[in-house]
Amino acid sequence: MGYMFNYLRPWRQQIPILAGSRKKRARLTFAEGEFAAVYAMSDVHGCYNELVEAHRRIEQDAVRIPGPKLIVMLGDYVDRGPDSSAVLEFLSKTPPPGFQRFVLCGNHDAELVTLYRKPARILEWLGFAGTETLHSYGIDIEHLLQSAAGRETIARVIRNMIPERHIQFLESLPIMLRMGRVVFVHAGIKPGIDLNRQKDSDLMWIRQPFLDEGPQLPVLVIHGHTPARIPTFGPQRIGIDTAVSATGRLTVLTIKGTRVGIL
Fold first, then answer.
1. Can you give the pTM of this predicted structure?
2. Do the beta carbons of residue 234 and residue 211 sit within 8 Å?
C-alpha cells in the first residue's frame, strides 16, 4: 500500500468532440459499506498485460479481507495500447472469485460503438483515435484506405472482424456508480448539477470546469479521463488515469471502510 488518507476530509486543489445522441445509460447505486473493499482503475486503453497484473495484485491484496469485494472499471478500454480486443474479452468474462465487477463506459468505448454502428464516420473516428484498436482485431486500416476501399467495404471488414458481442458488451455498460457519498464515473460531473440530471456526454467527456471546481455537491468523485503521471487530487475529486499506454503505470485505488489508498 502506497499511502492512506480519509476520504471524508476536504480536498486541497492541486467536450465532447464526437459524441452524438444515444440512449441514456444506466446509473448504479449501492449503500455505503456494502462492500468490504472496493478497487477502482481507469483508462486501460488496450494495455491487456497491465490489466491482468492489476487483477492479480487486487486478488493478492484482498485475500485476507472477509466479505464481498468490488472492482470498478472507470472506462476507456480501447485505443492507444496494442490489445484492445483482449481487454474487452477479459472484461466481458466472469470476475475473480469473491468479487463483483462493474465496468463503466468511457468516451473511447462509446465512440467504438458509434463507428461499428455508423462506419461512415471512419475518417472522423481515426482522427480521434482507433487505429490501434482496429489492428488488435486484425484490421489493416491503412491498407484499406490506401486501396481506396469504399465505406461499404470498410464497414463489412469491421463487422466481420470485431465480434458483435464486444459491441453489445460496450452498449450495455452503465455510466455511473454511486456508493454513499462516493461517485465513480469516467470523466467527472458537471459542477453543481444534481446527479440524476447529469448528461451522459458530460460524465464521459468533461474536463473543465470540473477539474478546477470539483463536483460542488456533497460527494467525492473518483474519475479517470484526464491523464497524469500520478493520481491527482482536486476539490472533492481523485483522478486515477495515469496514462498506462504511455507510462506503463495502471493505478488501482482502494476503498476499505472510510479509508482510501493506492495499491
1. 0.90
2. yes
